């Protein structure tokens, strides 16, 4: 969708994790004397799906162009098309609580959006 002329505004929030932050978390875990629990890792601030699209589009040198479509209308269209579960996966918030790992000293990536724009640029270059 980010590579199309327009994208839908999806304001749900998602936790992301950059490759660099994942590697840092793995190193921190390997350095711990004893791992006491299951740790979850994510960037510090969740981003909305429309922010993800906007960052990708910025990386592709395109304007955001988000179409204001009511979520209820999209939900009903998905239900009528037999894709209600897909709608739930697309519109639901998916937030990871990585506070336990951060409390043990891991430093999270502050803002994942620049990395998303870089990923879109790299993808575009790979297509050329």
TrEMBL record:
* Biological classification of the source: Bacteria, Pseudomonadati, Pseudomonadota, Alphaproteobacteria, Hyphomicrobiales
Q: Which UniProt keywords apply?
A: Plasmid
Stretches the record annotates as Disordered: 104-128
Name used for this protein in its record: Uncharacterized protein
The source's superkingdom equals Bacteria
């Amino acid at each position: 969708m980010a590579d199309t002329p327009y994208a839908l505004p999806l304001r749900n929030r998602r936790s992301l994790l950059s490759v660099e932050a994942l590697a840092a978390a793995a190193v921190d875990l390997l350095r711990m004397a004893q791992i006491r629990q299951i740790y979850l890792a994510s960037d510090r601030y969740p981003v909305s799906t429309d922010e993800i699209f906007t960052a990708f589009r910025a990386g592709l040198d395109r304007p955001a162009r988000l179409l204001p479509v009511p979520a209820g209308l999209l939900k009903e269209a998905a239900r009528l098309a037999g894709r209600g579960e897909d709608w739930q996966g697309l519109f639901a918030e998916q937030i990871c609580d990585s506070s336990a790992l951060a409390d043990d000293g891991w430093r999270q990536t502050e803002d994942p959006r620049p990395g998303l724009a870089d990923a879109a640029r790299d993808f575009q270059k790979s297509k050329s």
